[in-house]
Write a structure and sequence with these properties.
Layout lengths: L2 H7 L1 H17 L3 H14 L4 H13 L3 H14 L4 H13 L3 H14 L4 H13 L3 H14 L4 H13 L3 H14 L5 H12 L3 H14 L6 H23 L1
């Protein structure tokens, strides 16, 4: 039997081999080459959910989100309990700028695996991007209650509260982060901004200093330094006026 006839006599096995090869290429970030192997695998076996999933993920990394969504939807259709397919579908909808389209996919992912906090967080982000802020806050809070060590939930809740100008509440959430992880120095900057917005200049400077002490080379450092200088000038002017 020739190599060609062997190839055609067992297409399912060849499809599996091509899919495995594609998986290895994808793990090495060789997404274009992996996509080619996945397509070849699909040509030999049209109902291989793993190949469609891998192909969708490749297109996601190649920033072709429309194609990624198409192939991930096929993977989910072939395997209705594929958590990763629904999760990646939600992510691709977010990347494509369709947050409201992401919601149903994250909901389905949560139904399949309710213990995974990542899908719940992304569901909150999707609602936030759809400007459904109350729903987003509720999801973040529920996630905090269910996974009290999951820092990302606190981070997103505090950021949304700041966006809504609810600075006192945001500062309390940021303080909770510091209790869980004292090395999460980004929270110092956030608390400083909250006090700054609330007009508590001395408290704002105190937290800004803590942030700069721990993160002097951060991308936020320039903003914090500039803001501290303005606060010092404001406080100096205020003191001079009170003396007069």
């Amino acid at each position: 039997m020739t190599k060609k006839s062997q190839y055609m006599s067992n297409p399912v096995k060849q499809s599996v081999n091509l899919c495995e090869k594609a998986d290895m290429l994808r793990e090495k970030n060789s997404f274009k080459e992996a996509a080619s192997s996945y397509l070849n695998a699909i040509m030999l076996e049209r109902d291989n959910a793993q190949s469609y999933f891998g192909l969708g993920v490749c297109y996601k990394h190649m920033e072709n989100y429309a194609k990624a969504i198409r192939y991930l939807e096929k993977a989910a259709e072939l395997d209705e309990n594929n958590y990763d397919a629904y999760f990646e579908l939600g992510v691709c909808h977010l990347l494509e700028g369709i947050p409201c389209g992401a919601i149903k996919n994250f909901v389905r992912a949560i139904q399949i695996n309710p213990e995974n906090p990542d899908a719940i967080l992304q569901l909150g982000i999707s609602h936030e991007l759809c400007e459904e802020y109350d729903m987003a806050l509720m999801i973040y809070q529920k996630l905090i209650e269910n996974s009290p060590e999951y820092i990302k939930a606190y981070d997103h809740k505090s950021s949304l509260l700041m966006k809504m100008e609810r600075y006192k509440e945001a500062s309390l959430i940021l303080n909770q982060i510091m209790k869980i992880d004292p090395s999460y120095h980004k929270a110092y900057a956030g608390i400083g901004i909250c006090f700054d917005k609330l007009g508590k200049k001395s408290d704002a400077q105190r937290y800004y200093r803590k942030f700069l002490l721990n993160k002097p080379d951060s991308s936020q450092a320039s903003f914090v330094k500039t803001r501290m200088q303005k606060l010092r000038l404001q406080m100096t002017k205020s003191n001079n006026l009170s003396v007069v």
